[in-house]
Amino acid sequence: MTRIDDRFAELKAKGRKAFVAYIMAGDPDLDTSLAVMQGLPGAGVDVIELGMPFTDPMADGPTIQLAGQRALDGGQTLAKTLDMVRTFRKTDQTTPIVMMGYYNPIYSRGVDRFLVEAKEAGIDGLIVVDLPPEEDEELCLPAQKAGLNFIRLATPTTDAKRLPKVLQNTSGFVYYVSITGITGAAAAQAAEVAPEVARIKAATDLPVIVGFGISTPDSAKAIATIADGCVVGSAIVKEIGAGKAPAEVLAQVAALAQGAHSA
Amino acid sequence: MPEDMPNSYMTGPDEQGRFGIFGGRFVSETLMPLILDLEERYEHAKTDPTFWAEMNDLWTHYVGRPSPLYYAERLTQHLGGAKIYMKRDELNHTGAHKINNVLGQIILARRMGKTRIIAETGAGQHGVATATVCAKFGLKCVVYMGAHDVERQAPNVFRMKLLGAEVIPVTSGRGTLKDAMNDALRDWVTNVRDTFYCIGTVAGPHPYPAMVRDFQSIIGKEAKQQILEREGRLPDTIIAAIGGGSNAMGLFYPFLDDKSVRIIGVEAGGKGVDDRMEHCASLTGGRPGVLHGNRTYLLQDEDGQILEGYSISAGLDYPGIGPEHSWLHDVGRAEYVSITDAEALAAFQLCCEQEGIIPALEPSHALAHVMKIAPTLPKDHLIVMNLCGRGDKDIFTVAKHLGVNMKI
């Protein structure tokens, strides 16, 4: 059992939907992003997705690309991101942290070394966009063995034939990508997403969380209503990118969380 | 089963799309179903005589294949050693080898019912080839090109527009070829249902590296037959320039199992392969990593962040290399060397003066290596180098480097 499993069990017992918030580690600098991260649980965030910056984020729209660039320009590294998690864990032992990003920085560090460090730092799960089930031996299986959840993306193109393969080695939760597209692009439509979520839920007992294209408290509510929760990323990152202070960013996060929790 | 030495270098990739540890399918879930579909369609097309009949007809009547194998007599005499042959793929329609592959992919796209074609381009040669074939078949064409390259390759941008393509300058990242590829992938993920991504080199997720290699292998097949006709034997050395590595893979592949043939790939050494990293020599100056759907040698920092390549030649300006080259490098079947900007420029000029051929800057790198080794080899040593593109697109760059003001 990871903190992710515990958190979803707890939410289920309360009959509450999950609100997942994404921020980029080191954006615009280490101190600011740590301050925002430390405030997320208080703002109502149930699960934190912590982005690992990468030079070539192929599944991300401009907002998250720029966040990654700001972080890298500010000298963010994987080692610093792990340190950030260690610092966070000094004051918060319960909020699940999922690291999200691309494979190369992990591969470059060495998978075995990374998994030991990630577990020790207090990371609970991984979302690695460019590792489909076909590449499970790279990181997914070693991560599960190391006691980390490996959270898979399911998408509108994941048809019935392929879905079992996608679900097979998934743990923690299933991240349903609401649109064919990149982060921060088209708005997710609850009416279109609902049957897709139902289709996935029929095939797994894991919670199904919907992300991509959710940017307002209303859309957070609408999407959380038809799933087990929702993720907001670009809408938060945009505020950080605009130079807002952590308190302002967290006020907006609280409004989004309230939207999701009112579902 | 005992560990046998490979008795063939031509069996890859395996079912996972791997050449040794290289290659693979490192893409987001949204693209996976399409990539699997593409693989199935390509596997079918590969053995479908009607597919190859269509290809051969267009290669002959639209592209102008076979391209000649030309004995560069004056250059041979000038260098005073090995006998030098040039595979003249610069004589193809659109002026480079790129169209060999584009035709194959577009025919496949049409068979898959795709109506919109996207491509990335650096120097613009692959973009022009894609725009050309799309015009021929009446398909919508969108080309992603780094904003920096749009500026320095204005004639090719205009060509693409004349051919009806939409050229989108890419400003994300640093606005170069790798960023153009990122944006093409973002487009594909967004428009996956009606769009075909026509990749210009032997890189990307499986099946692209194998598929593009197979389409480009026409270069090596012809060269082999032509040298056998001319000389009655195989060449001793074959040489080609490498950015992503499609012209080189096309020449090399049919010779991989001819163990007597020495195979040399020439990477862009830019200002020199050293710590400043102002080069594009992924094999000489990089290490294995994962980018753009495959594992291969990449220019990257110690934290796994991808570095920008640099080369005088926009067509070689890419921080990665096709995964099959990475494998051939590691198993030692091919050698990889690098050539600097200055050496390539000297070769460019020598080719103009000695042979009356203006080569592109990309094959000028291969030629520069020929200039290095030919004088040290005996007169009966046969070299075949791939002259994969013509240099009209490069005259402005060359003029600038030679200090010539082209404005009249």
What does the secondary structure layout of this molecule look like, with pairings?
The complex is a heterodimer of chains A (263) and B (408).
Chain A: H1 3-14, E1 18-24, H2 30-39, E2 47-51, H3 62-73, H4 78-91, E3 97-101, H5 103-109, H6 111-121, E4 125-128, H7 140-145, E5 149-150, E6 153-154, H8 163-168, E7 174-177, H9 190-201, E8 208-211, H10 217-225, E9 229-232, H11 234-241, H12 246-261
Parallel strand pairs in A: 1-2, 1-9, 2-3, 3-4, 4-5, 6-7, 7-8, 8-9
Chain B: E1 18-19, E2 22-26, H1 32-46, H2 49-63, E3 69-71, H3 73-79, E4 83-87, H4 98-111, E5 116-121, H5 125-137, E6 140-146, H6 147-152, H7 154-162, E7 166-170, H8 177-190, E8 195-197, H9 208-216, H10 218-231, E9 237-242, H11 246-252, E10 262-270, H12 282-285, E11 287-291, E12 293-298, H13 323-331, E13 335-340, H14 341-355, H15 361-373, E14 382-386, H16 395-401
Helix pairs in contact in B: 2-4, 3-14, 4-5, 4-9, 5-7, 9-11, 10-11, 14-15
Structural class given helices, strands, pairing of chain B?
A: alpha/beta
Strands in their spatial order, largest beta sheet of chain A: 5-4-3-2-1-9-8-7-6
Rg result of chain A: 17 Å
Strand numbers in spatial order across the main sheet of chain B: 3-4-14-9-10-13
CATH topology of chain A: TIM Barrel
- For the record, what CATH class of chain A applies? Alpha Beta
Anisotropy-based shape of chain A? globular
Overall shape of chain B: it is globular
- Report the strand count of chain B: 14
Percent in helix of chain B: 40-55%
Q: Share of helix among residues of chain A?
A: 40-55%
Oligomer: heterodimer
Strand content range of chain A? 5-15%
Low-confidence stretches of chain B: none
Order of helices and strands of chain B: EEHHEHEHEHEHHEHEHHEHEHEEHEHHEH
At CATH's second level, what is the architecture of chain A? Alpha-Beta Barrel
Q: How large is the share of residues in beta strands of chain B?
A: 15-25%
